[in-house]
Amino acid sequence: MKKVKLISLMSVIVLLSSCNSITSTFNTASTTSTMPMVTNDLKMEVAKNVNTITELYAAGKSKVGSEGEEIARNKAEVLAKDALRKAIRSEAYKDIRQKLDVANLKTGDFSDYSVNNYANEIAVKLLNESEKRAEFQTGNTEIGVIYVLSKDRVKEETDDFFQEKLQGEIDRLQNIKTTN
Fold this sequence. Notes:
Lipoprotein, signal, 4-stranded antiparallel β-sheet
């Protein structure tokens, strides 16, 4: 199977605990059955809609011959990597927001906008840590890869980020509240 450069990889993320319908979508995939079904993983699949990517692949191949395969694969992977980043960001956002809610801090540097930026920073850092688990096929045509990142790894990174960048500011703000 042809290796794909990490830089061009893109996939769509779903939590494995909610991917039963996605797994059934890829029943014809030759390697899907070998993927571990671990509920603590963030999983990305190549396409939200297999038909869309298959059609893109076919159209690209018919227009430019053998180069069409690469064009179709690259398009699918571009969409997919952005989705993985968003899934990691979502996990990080929830974890940071929960910590801030416990500290009763919701404004200023801890607004939803700021927390989203913090979470995105974490997602960008972790994106390259995602682990390739399997390549899969639709019909006879290889169209993509599946990557996995542990939710525990996202939590570890969020905890480190929180301690390094936010805990001092939280302590300062809580001291101001206490003295007033």
